[in-house]
């Protein structure tokens, strides 16, 4: 049913909590797992890049996530992309033929003000495949 699962990750607690759900889905369906980290592009006017999203930090995050899944007996592929998170997640899902995107939710879209800025809400609206949100 879910041949390819895309799991966009960041350093949030919600992403770590969603990892258990991802592991269960991948094991149940024998899915291919693709881990994705999106580094948001910075503009010339923007302040210096956040050190928490440096290429080294992102590489380590992906490496740690891959090791975590490997402990569960799950092989995974990793992708690192640069761009606007919601659009990049959906583009990658389309590119790899994902059957499911699993994401943690920070709850930022629960207010009227946050709904338009929520990466989760944008992914739900733009995704080429079903999206499973883990609260």
UniProtKB/TrEMBL annotation:
SUPFAM superfamilies: Adenine nucleotide alpha hydrolases-like
Residue span, UspA domain: 1-135
Domain of life of the source: Bacteria
Gene3D superfamilies: HUPs (3.40.50.620)
Classification via InterPro entries: Rossmann-like_a/b/a_fold, Universal_stress_UspA, UspA
Family the entry assigns: Belongs to the universal stress protein A family.
Annotated protein name in UniProt: UspA domain-containing protein
Organism of origin: Anabaenopsis circularis NIES-21
Source species taxonomy: Bacteria, Bacillati, Cyanobacteriota, Cyanophyceae, Nostocales
């Amino acid at each position: 049913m879910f041949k390819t699962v895309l799991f966009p990750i960041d350093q949030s607690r919600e992403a770590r909590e969603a990892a258990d759900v991802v592991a269960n889905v991948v094991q149940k369906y024998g899915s291919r797992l693709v881990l994705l980290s999106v580094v948001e592009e910075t503009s010339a006017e923007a302040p210096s890049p956040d050190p928490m999203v440096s290429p080294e930090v992102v590489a380590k995050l992906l490496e740690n996530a891959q090791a975590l899944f490997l402990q569960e007996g799950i092989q995974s592929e990793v992708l690192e992309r640069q761009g606007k998170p919601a659009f990049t997640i959906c583009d990658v899902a389309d590119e790899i033929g994902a059957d499911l995107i699993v994401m943690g939710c920070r709850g930022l879209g629960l207010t009227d003000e946050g709904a338009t800025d929520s990466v989760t809400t944008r992914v739900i609206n733009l995704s080429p495949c079903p999206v499973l949100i883990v609260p």
